[in-house]
Amino acid sequence: MGESVMGSTIEVILFLFMIVLALYIARLRSLFAAAMLFGIFSLLAAGLQTMMDAVDVAFTEAAVGAGISTVLFLGALGLTTSEESQSSHHRLPALLVVSATGLMLAYGTLDMPAYGDPSAPIHHHVAPHYLEDSTEEIGVPNVVTSVLASYRGYDTYGETTVVLTAAVGAILLLGGNAARSRSRRGEGGGE
């Protein structure tokens, strides 16, 4: 019982840190600082997901959210200014859209079962089958791996393809601009 209370306390503290950090990031004007703090936000999210026993999701969050995304943000900052413009004529409509979306998402969670509820539908559909039969059917002792690699293999392949496509697109965008920049310097230097 003591470990459960301690775990819940840490989860709440991490979640509160994430909320405070998100509010602070929203107020920042330095894009470099925002990019760095987004990386910290992702690490906090990975820690929270680890506390909730979603280690596979936490690993992905740490690799993609804190790693790749931060590198892409910094690469994009190399192509632009490091400060946000002071134009504020779009702030109120954007705030209203974000607030309305957040309220609708919160409203959508009201009929969900409580976190960890053993009588939730998810625990009575395919989860028992996966837990009991995956070792025999798939031959992999780790249930998470058997679900991701076999039962949901097409989904995982699709998700991997989407991430790869996004990474290649970002590399092409960043690399294409660097090539144009080099060619401009070469044209200017030859005159």
Structural class: mainly alpha
Q: Please report which band the strand proportion falls in: under 5%, 5-15%, 15-25%, 25-35%, 35-45% or over 45%.
A: under 5%
**Ranges with pLDDT <50 over ≥5 residues?**
none
Strand segment tally: 0
- Estimate the global geometry from the Cα principal axes: globular
> SSE order, as H and E?
HHHHHHH
Radius of gyration: 22 Å
| Helical content (DSSP H or I, runs of 4+) | over 70%
Distance between the termini: 77 Å
Mean pLDDT: 80
Count helical runs. Answer: 7
Query: What kind of sheet is the major sheet?
Result: none
Structural features, described:
There is one protein chain. With 191 residues, the chain is mainly alpha-helical. It has a domain at 1-82. The protein is 76% helix and 0% strand. The protein has 7 helices and no strands. It has helices at residues 2-27, 31-51, 55-77, 91-108, 127-138, 143-151, 153-189. Helix 2 runs antiparallel to helix 3, helix 5 crosses helix 6 and helix 6 packs across helix 7. It starts with a helix and ends with a helix.
Fold blueprint:
Blueprint: H1 2-27, H2 31-51, H3 55-77, H4 91-108, H5 127-138, H6 143-151, H7 153-189
